[in-house]
Amino acid sequence: MSSSQDGYIVDVPYPTFVHRQTMPSWLNMIIQSKGFCAPDLVTPYRYLELGCAMGIHLHLTAAANPQGHFVGVDFNQQHLMVAQEGLEMTHIDNIEFIHTDFESFLNYDIEPFDFIVTHGVWSWISSENQNIVAQIVDKFLKKDGVLYCSYMSHPGATSLISVQKLMLEISRNLQGDSATKAVQSLNLVRQIGVAKSGLFEKIPGLNQELAELAQDKPNYIAHDFLSEHWQPQHSADMIQRFGKLGLCYVGGAGIIENLDKISLPVDVQKVVKTLPLITLQETVKDIARYTLQRQDIYVKNRTQLNQQQLENYYSTVKFGLLPAAPLGQDLSLDPKVGRIKDAIQLFEQILALLNKQLCSTLELSSLLKQKLSLKQLTEILLVLMWAGYIHPCQHSKTASKFEASMNQWMSDQQLNWRCLTNYGTAIQI
Fold this sequence. Notes:
- This protein is of the alpha/beta class.
- It is 44% helix and 17% strand.
- α2 (56-64) links the parallel β3 and β4.
- The longest helix is centred in the middle third of the chain and has 16 residues, at 178-193.
């Protein structure tokens, strides 16, 4: 068996990852908090994942969101055998997996989608396949539809270009599967780093970065560093590329990158405010943050919420506590939100209120009695959401018809993810 197909590693399975930031309610929360229209999650909607691997993420997303229909596409048949096994075990009926490559999928006769997501794919495929993915988005994404696209970014990934090239070339001369080759090639690169010369002198943190990489699963290292196509991107290029297709950049799915007051030095914030174009603003932010990976959200033919829609968002989207919420604890010591000193008391008050009942932004504003605008309060809620302490709830009472079987399958597979239908998400336990 060849170790790669079209330059992409196929002889070892891609490790299981779940990305809560690609789930419908999370994406909608960010888009609406920015003041733009997002897909309706009360009525049936369609969701496509390009490069779904073994489908664990898509299984959890579909199980937690039974009102949606979910489609996963992957060209690796071994991956999809696991995905199909999951369907047989869980009996989830709102999901389908398609074994095909992107070029063939482009010619499918299939209904358009409200969401198209692709994580861990774009930077590892050929330029030709990137063009095809863009064509898929152009053809199959509805108006006001959402694209989530993650990719390696300059300048954080720039220093790794030479490292990846060396690892790839070394691997061509090694025996064993791709995971074995990845570990051996990384070890050689780290031996070079011991001298702390050249690249390792100019970028002192590179040795530590590679030491942390060495702790990852060998299969992950193989998929991440032994692909023949390994292309970090400039955010400005990505924004312009999708802009030509009528997709407007909205923000980052990781949340914190949208909150400049938290993620940027004051002097950089001032520079950003002087720049007229989003491409310039995002490039400055990437430089200031040394961004390694971006998780961009785009909306097709983006439209702003009108005043009535905005008020409806503030009054109807309710939030609830997740199991990890540190109730009754001193959040000044919290590893996630403790550094935001001026908001600690507010964080604690919000968690206490949500422990009693689900609340909308408007209801929390009334109960808190703070001199905060609804926009400012929304930013506070987004921080708690990023930390994994709260989450927006489903808009209507959703039957948990797949939750038990899905969570049982996760337990049987010894995977520490569980779906929460009431929130339309999944959590690690």
